[in-house]
Amino acid sequence: MASPVTVAPAPPAADLTPTLEHTVAQAGAARALAARLVERGLRTVYFVGCGGSYYSTFPAQDLMERHSHGPAAYRMTAGEMIHRGLAGLDESALVVASSHSGATPETLEAVRLAKKAGATVAGIARCADGRTSPLAEEADALFDYPSEVTVTEPKAIHFTQLALAVLEAAGALPDPEGAWRAVAAVPEALTAAKHEVAPLGERVGAQWRDARLVYVLGAGPNFGAANALAACYLQEMNWLHASAVNAGDFFHGPFEIVGQHPVLVLNGEDETRAMGERAVAFAERYYDTWSVLDSKDFTLPGVPAAQRGLISPLAVASAARRLLDFCAAERGHNPAQRRYMYRVDY
Predict the structure, then answer these.
(1) Beta bridge partners of 291
(2) In degrees, to the nearest 5, what angle opens at C-alpha 258 toward C-alphas 253 and 260?
(3) Which residue in 57, 96, 187, 221 has the fewest CB atoms around it within 10 Å?
(4) What is the mean pLDDT of each run of 10 residues along the chain (346 residues)?
(5) Which domains are seen in the chain, by residue range?
(6) In what order do the strands lie in the sheet with 263-267?
(7) What is the spatial distance between Cα 135 and Cα 287, in angstroms, rounded to a whole number?
(8) How many other CB atoms are found less than 10 A from the CB of residue 199?
(9) First vs last C-alpha separation in the chain
């Protein structure tokens, strides 16, 4: 068993709650945009981004797949939009594209391609101090956030709000009043989760301190958070080898070897929860070093009980981001350090 955590992590960002409040305050703009587009015959929605922006699309896509008979929805990396011909990319499409800087080259190229095809583009990007960005200038509508630090949450919230707005406008959203009440509670709920995940942070910080590889399992809307944790927070920001495994594929090969390294299972309260629980039951029986990030451990104040499944993927993603801080502290790694990103041509 790993020894207890000995190094205190950086505290949660001071601007967390105000940034989340700024983000959810734009729900009305999302609903207005969706209503106009549905009235004009919206047929297809594309959720697009690179890296963390792409991983933030998973909860929104899950909502559309579960509730919408039309418009159809797809998620993809910006590179895939650029290099593949898309039959639905025309004047009846909405492209929701996210880039923190508003200047990611692939995302901008995808946006310009979409606009050339006649699609409406909703951009998601940081906007602060009166500064604009290429994405803000290209987009037909901008959904923004002011923080340079609180980034994971506003992207996922904006994607989710736009998905909810489209579903509502199309008459496909169950209990719209309850859904929007839950969204309004997100700032307080996610702020609480960020603090409530601390005991798990201490546990995985100790487990990952000397690890050579970490596996992260997730399913459905939480698989985006699993990928973000593995690719962005561990590989990119901690220089720790990591791999995300879909809990639905876990028993079709990976479980033979995964347990030789620390394993973290991300569990929400959505319809795919049973997939994560099955992986946890296996880990309890056969693995030595494993943990669970479970949204049921979070109070999510203000979120109606019937809507916890809607909000839990956002809480899981936010809490998973917090684990980065514990890992970096224990490993003595500066998460802002890069070998290649922003430093060389690629």
Answers:
(1) 264
(2) 135
(3) 187
(4) 69 96 98 98 98 98 97 98 97 98 97 98 92 95 97 98 98 98 98 98 96 98 98 97 98 96 98 98 97 98 98 98 96 93 90
(5) 16-174 (3.40.50.10490), 189-331 (3.40.50.10490)
(6) 241-246, 213-218, 263-267, 290-294
(7) 46
(8) 8
(9) 41
